[in-house]
Write a structure and sequence with these properties.
alpha+beta, 4-stranded antiparallel beta sheet, 8 helices, 40% helix, globular, binds flavin mononucleotide
Length: 206
């Protein structure tokens, strides 16, 4: 399956086969695809937490409006980010480059993030979004279905997964075999509303 086909056929799965298992090697491949998503300054702040423990899955479902995907998906990944990764020995993100390059990049990282709480968080959410999409497209290309989810109590989930104080939770990505055919797309916008050229229209519509 090529990328475009994976994008066009991916749909949010609502009913996973609870008995299905993804072979370990394929799950590793999917997670690797998530880790390959780009991050600004290559700070690689995404953290992909795989919930294997059935007890924990049940606890998560309880704080996720009882959504069945949480327990029934073959794999449940909590897509998180270390919001402070930018200041945790950032030279390691550029360790395969000449020292001069490392120095420049580390300086740029400090300049960009220092004192900018919202930028730190915005950047983490951009990165996790791309990692989540990579997970879903990789899953699709291997013949699986997925569902991105944020219908849960973020604080309760943070407690269950022992989220460190300086990390955030972006969403769940549930992956497995869908047992239901997807419904037709529910209300796609016309291109003229979702795609714009050069600038947004003025208030008078021109
Ligand atoms: C950030 C995010 C959170 C979502 N949360 C949930 C969720 O909690 N439960 C659910 O069943 N679907 C969830 N969805 C799936 C959307 O409902 C679905 O992607 C949307 O209706 C479009 O359908 P499609 O993905 O099949 O094209 C979520 C999607 C996104 C992007």
């Amino acid at each position: 399956m090529n990328v475009l086909e994976a994008i066009q056929t991916r749909r949010a799965a609502k009913a996973f086969d609870p008995h299905h298992r993804i072979p370990e090697a394929q799950l590793r491949e999917i997670l690797r695809a998530g880790a390959l998503a780009p991050t600004a300054f290559n700070i690689q702040h995404n953290r992909l937490l795989v919930v294997e423990d059935p007890e924990k899955r049940r606890a998560l479902r309880e704080v996720s409006w009882n959504q069945p995907q949480v327990t029934d998906a073959s794999a449940l990944i909590v897509v998180c980010a270390d919001v402070q990764a930018w200041q945790k020995n950032p030279a390691r993100y550029w360790r395969n480059t000449p020292e001069e390059v490392q120095k420049t990049l580390v300086g740029a990282i400090q300049t960009y993030y220092t004192g900018r709480t919202q930028a730190q968080r915005d950047e983490a959410l951009r990165s996790t979004g791309m990692a989540a999409m990579n997970l879903m497209l990789a899953a699709k290309s291997l013949g699986y279905d997925s569902c991105p989810m944020d219908g849960f109590d973020f604080e309760a989930v943070a407690e269950i997964i022992r989220l460190p104080e300086d990390h955030l939770i972006s969403m769940f990505v549930a992956i497995g075999r869908n047992t239901e055919a997807p419904k037709p797309r529910s209300g796609p916008l016309e291109d003229h509303e979702s795609v714009l050229i050069d600038a947004f229209p003025r208030d008078d519509g021109n």
